[in-house]
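Exercise: predict the fold of this chain.
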Amino acid sequence: MNGQAQTVQGAAHGYLQRGWRVVPIPSRRKAPVLDDWPHLQLEEADLAVAFGNGENIGLLTGEPSGGLVDVDLDSPEGQVLAERLLPPTGRIHGRASKPRSHFWYICDQPPQPAKFQAPDGTTLVELRSTGQQTLVPPSLHPSGEPLRWEQAGDPSLVDAQMLRRRTAHLAAAALLSRSWPRPGSRHDAALALAGTLLRVGWAESQATGFIRAVAEASGDEEVRARVRDVTSTARRLSEGRPATGIPSLKALFGEDVVRRLCDWLSLNQHSDSSRPPLPAPALPIEQARVSSRLTFIPLGDLMSQPEEEVRWVVVDRLPAAGISLIAGRPKAGKSTLARCLVLAVARGEPWLGFPTLQGSVLYLALEEKETEVRRHFEAMGASGDEPVFIYSARAPQDGVTLLRQAAEERRPRLIIVDPLLRLVRVRDANDYALVTAALEPLLALARETEAHVLAVHHLGKGNHQAGDAILGSTAIFATVDTSLILKRSDKYRTLSSIQRYGEDLEEIVLVFDPETRSVMAGPPRQEADELHLASGILAYLGARREPVEEAEIHESVEGRRAVKVKTLRRLVEEGRVVRSGQGRKGAPYHYALAGSRLVVPNTLREPVEPGSKISERPHRDWTNSGSPDFGQADSGSGDLSNVAGAEPESSEVRLSREQAGDVPLITLADVERLLGPVQVIYDGPSQAVTPLEGEASSSAKVRERRQDA
């Protein structure tokens, strides 16, 4: 089976999943050749045979596909006018020479098929419904052009009669545009058309919108003048004065054109030019283009539905059939983090500690050089056998459509777009409506292929928080399921998330391995801040000859005061810092590094329990990843084993309170120089003295060696 056959079968599978009936068509042809094809009901098991030789694929319209209907725009004028006069929809397809030429909708009661033709027999617009079919992507048109989805979202649910009326109005506008008179007669044409429409009940705003659309599609250079023609005609009619109408239209456009206009616009060919306007129709052309039917379900039915289980590509972070964003400032490491995710999913390995669902990955590197992408994957240890497929070039104008085709062919687990606005082009990234419409095909791609789509994007300037920090319209933040916020400071890089599904990821520090250029998860940001400040406090106290007041620590060690207070209290609780004094005016607390002096125990505000050790509690190691290469080690590492005053592994010296009180202050360095590494342990009131390892010793011996020294 060739690649085209696989692609068509995959598309047919997707259409059947939506409840749309498919029919095989010979390659490069538009019409089926099977007998009784309007009643064909292929199932999944039939697809391999029906589409085994690269056949084209058609969709049965109308009742067989649950009310799916197609508005086929055969004329150039119809294509120009469709966006203005048809209801909006999320499903549109076409081909290179006729883009956006098929608009798809769902009707509960499908309308009758209709074909709207010009007097010369050419088709302007066709409404395809029950008993018909339409050639759809990824088929090849008889011209050789491949069909493509311009928008691959859901067809809008619309009222059948409303859609029939809108299609007829579109055909009328296309016919008028094609027949619009040359300069010199356009003023008369606009006056006559306005008089006709207003007289049968169109509101002035409706008539203005319709005539403006006709003038623009025809290339009329005086569109504003045509609008003024409508205004002046409305004024004449409101004052009871006569206005031109259908007779003038016949003189300007001919009997055949006007007959069709009267049919398609429901006009009265014999209207009197002095007849007052009728009430406005219930469904004006410029009315908000939404479905005319809302489907409600009882609360009880909703509550009885089974709970939907979220499927994850990255557990608890990136959902299948979802869309997400990695947002950060320039040079923050967004692409590095994204490529680490690529390799993790391709191998089924954890990413930042979170399990992944193994599968193929499409990676669009739209800014970086191909050589840099290759070098990074090599550094991370990629073998080349991983199911990763890379596009490294500028995105074409129809990039989203082509990406959709690639996704339907390869069925990836993950798609990464780096960066977002190189693929999704929008005139104004701050315009909510424009951005929402531009992201719709990408969202539809994710929902319909069940791949997760992750886009790399930038944070804006300023100190905005959460979703407001993302560059551009808030529509970007509103669209995605997960926003991963990457920040960089002078100390480290951090990552947090804001999610539609699951719990948000608290801000964590990222650790970079410069050798493999891989990123790993470090501790939470709060813990990292405390570790960094603990290092600074211990280093400061280790350099002091005497205990210091807390105010001196706050003044000398940089960091947030609240975090310093918390960190200092923790260091005291852990026994790594000793606090003396009473904490009141005239007798403030003083702090010193535990182990730097044999401090008299009874000066402690909180007595040390008998047998307790003044020793260091182990901490996780973490690396400062705030450096330019995402991996340079920071001197303020959380590994505090090398900080001055931290106790190494040692023997034990046990001193009773009484004995310790008799010993003059002596530095730990002095003791270790005489006796080797020690840890000081207070043994309460006991008179016993624990000998040093390998040597009988006593407090007298300590004094003796101190005196000898």
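Check your answer against the key: The mean pLDDT is 81.
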